[in-house]
Specification:
Elements: H1 2-6, H2 15-29, H3 36-65, H4 69-82, H5 88-93, H6 101-117, H7 142-159, H8 168-186, E1 191-198, E2 201-208
Antiparallel strand pairs: 1-2
């Protein structure tokens, strides 16, 4: 559920579910678990819960501060293509959830202004000082990649995949050979990405895009 919220699929954090799980874990901690195997399994589960909650809290802080890597990568690709400052409408079109658009746009535009004042290119303003490079693939636009990423995460939710979501950059690198092969074989300049669910697994297929 948190992956869906961080991806912008869900508009609200699953706070009700989180409080209920906290309540159940607190109640279980008060029980004297006699069997060593069960006690070990619960301690392992408790450690995983602590790890996940720390991760969720960290990402939520990054979102509130406008430093969330996934959002920054979307803006970096946008500025690289069109330049200039970011508007609320552009941020929403790129997939930044509406609930955090205003704060995010204000921070990014402030960074752009600071960069311009120093005589540096504005495109670098949206990029973090360190981190993975922006996902770009010949034949696929940044908006296509963002749309694919949201569809991919919706499919993961559909099949019940609870593993942490892979970053868009990592997925793009895995898809790059497939897309390049499709473009070469079809002698096409553009490709499109299709997300399907087969036998409970999420599949991604690249096909040539001959539309004009």
């Amino acid at each position: 559920m948190y992956d869906s919220f961080f991806s912008g699929i869900e508009k609200q954090m699953p706070l009700v579910q989180r409080r209920e799980l906290n309540r159940l874990i607190t109640l279980t901690q008060q029980i004297n678990i006699g069997k060593a195997t069960l006690r070990f399994r619960f301690q392992s589960l408790l450690q995983r819960w602590i790890t996940y909650t720390a991760q969720w809290n960290r990402i939520q802080r990054e979102i509130e501060q406008g430093t969330y890597q996934r959002d920054l990568q979307k803006v970096q690709r946008h500025l690289a293509e069109v330049g200039g400052r970011l508007t609320d409408a552009q941020a929403i079109a790129m997939g930044i959830p509406a609930a955090r658009v205003k704060q995010f746009v204000a921070r990014q535009n402030r960074l752009v202004e600071e960069r311009e004042a120093k005589g540096a290119p504005a495109v670098s303003a949206a990029a973090p000082a360190k981190g993975p490079r922006s996902a770009t693939i010949v034949g696929v636009t940044s908006l296509q990649l963002d749309s694919f990423y949201e569809e991919y995460n919706r499919a993961r939710v559909q099949v019940g995949d609870t593993r942490p979501a892979k970053p868009l950059d990592e997925l793009a690198e895995r898809l790059r050979p497939q897309i390049e092969k499709v473009l070469a074989e079809a002698k096409a300049s553009r490709a499109k990405l299709q997300v399907t669910v087969e036998n409970g697994k999420v599949k991604v297929l690249a096909t040539p895009d001959h539309t004009r």
